[in-house]
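Kindly draft a polypeptide, keeping tokens residue-aligned:

***
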Amino acid sequence: MGLGDADNTIITNMETWNNAIYAGIENDIDGARIYRSTDGNTWVKVNNDGFGHVALNAIVDFQSFNGQLYASTADDDPVPAQTAEIWRSANGVAWNQSGNDGLGNANNFLFYELTVFNNQLYVGSFDDNNGADLFRTADGTNWNNVVNDGFGDANNTAIFGLYSFGGWLWAGTGNVNGAQIWRSANGTDWNLYFNYDGQPLLENATAINHFFDYNGLLYWFGVNATEGAHIARRHDDILHTFFIGGLGDNNNIWFSDNTVISGSFLYFGTRNDTTGGELWYTANFQNFTQIGQSGFGNIDNFAIYALTFKDYLYIGLSTGNGAKGAEIWRQMLTANILIKTEEIADGQQNSSYLQQLEANGGKEPYSWSLAEGSSLPKGLSLNSQTGEISGTPEESGDFQVKIFVNDSSRPQNRAYKIFTLKIVAGAFDLSSNQTGLAVLPETGANLDKKISCDNLKLTPVELLSVY
């Protein structure tokens, strides 16, 4: 654990570049670290601790640009002492600084996501004095400020998400009054696209920490420390929101800054300080499957922040227990568990009812359960071993029922689906009986093989003063 050092508490980011995997580390004792592996098993530290500054304690993001690998850094202590820096390497081993400290602003204690747009490299900052800055460079040496003072709002203390999509550069802010999304066609002229402050369509988000492209549409993650993170989508300038409330758990306050797409499946992690971080995947943004247990069996693993893919799915587990350090886990993508039943049959009040739920993938036997706060109509019950819903419903109406299935893998794989169960009163019309099934393709990862990462203490880069 901790890649040999228990003070390595957070794996903030992982990236594949030039046939090697790089892990960015937060270490609050010795300073930020970069570890490199060419086989995914043996990891070697390739930078000086904190690049010579103990207070520079976190590597935040990696980005390839003009044949070099760039790394953004941060001092994310409550009282920061070291201005953030950008570093780069032509071989992944020898590193030199790009630009000067803070890129000219001594209040920039964090540089967040690095993104390439129109052949220039961009990075956003954290500045809780005057508002965030946005910088760009064409040569990797000379940086120009293209946005300052938080797009004119000092409460935009951070530019977290940064992404090129559809001919636009998109920027997501951190703002205690509600995050904002801005976009630009040239990187210099910016327009406000959406403001979460007071919007009735979407729950309030204090930060937009990640954008991604999935099947040609733009999605983003919204951070919410009280009501749970959410996923939103843009399509023809119409906003759609999915799974507000942390995928059913308000303690999932943050979805990971990285996403992995393998085939048609998208993987991402969560931050959960109560029961441990979680790993999820989806094929359609209708059905979501959790892989493994929360925290992978250890509540101290409060976040899954780092994800990357190179023959394996790799994840970084951040830990709040300084005695053990963070961990990196990996596994090849294999069949995972899915709830196969697409819809459940309608029923009739005061008449016998039977519905068999089916799952595939994972390792049998399965166990079935109702989600906390979800219930069947009075008179019906769910058999935890067989997956049968049976009994005689005593009430009529439309009932939203959220059902989990766990397999027998160690760690367990878990999936859930939300069904609508309609119980009609009076005569039962057989034509309304919906029993169709649909089978989704199998994929996933049983992350049951921990690789050698002794004492890698990870704790995701905090949202600083945003929440």
Observations:
- The chain has two domains: 2-334+448-466, 338-432.
- Residues 427-467 have pLDDT under 50 and may be disordered.
- The first strand starts at residue 8 and ends at 17.
- The chain is about 0% helix and 45% strand.
